[in-house]
Amino acid sequence: VRIVATGSAAAALKMGSRESGAGRFSDFVLPPLTFAEYLDFSGRESLIVETADDGLARLRYDTPNIGELNAEFLNYLNYGGFPEAVIESTVRADPRRFLRQDIVDKVLQKDLPSLFGIADTQLLNRFFHVLAFNSGNEVSPESLAQTTGLKKHAISEYLEYLEAACLVRRVHRIDDTARRLQRARTFKVYLTNPSSEYYLGGLFLG
Hints:
The chain is mainly alpha-helical. 46% of the residues lie in helices and 9% in strands. The strands form 2 sheets. It has a 3-stranded antiparallel sheet. Strands 1-2 form a two-stranded antiparallel ribbon. The chain is globular and about 55 Å long. The chain starts with 9 loop residues before the first helix and ends in a 7-residue tail after the last helix.
């Protein structure tokens, strides 16, 4: 018997598989839509056309309307990572409300954080804001503790949860052999979806 379970509670599934399903669960991470997938979902895939290769066995792509393609790219940055927002016109009409309900209400402010020992969801929400506005910058546990007022152990718990919930991704420094530097104390944090910036108060691109 093979059972497949899907859902938005990624952190809960990860914690449950770690505690009771070791060796019996296979996790498949489904990332946000790429721009090409967004165009396909929204029925605008004709804005990118494949042309002849350049003689070096490399495909080339063109667009019949660069203005429309740029407009769709802005839509993609604002809400295009989520299939529901792309398909449902009611969600597209108010994407910030959708992001608030799907990210904050479900992931940051309900009972899922308690699985990781996080009791204060308001602090978690504020910590996520700090990471979002420093996306791509080099940070350290010390600098985050100084900025947020949190203790280092709390920062470690928050980062672990936000990664398990597929909201952020940590990128660590590596050497010239692609091995992680063991003594490095700094790392970069990226949002897994640019649409999160829109919910967190960034300007709607247009």
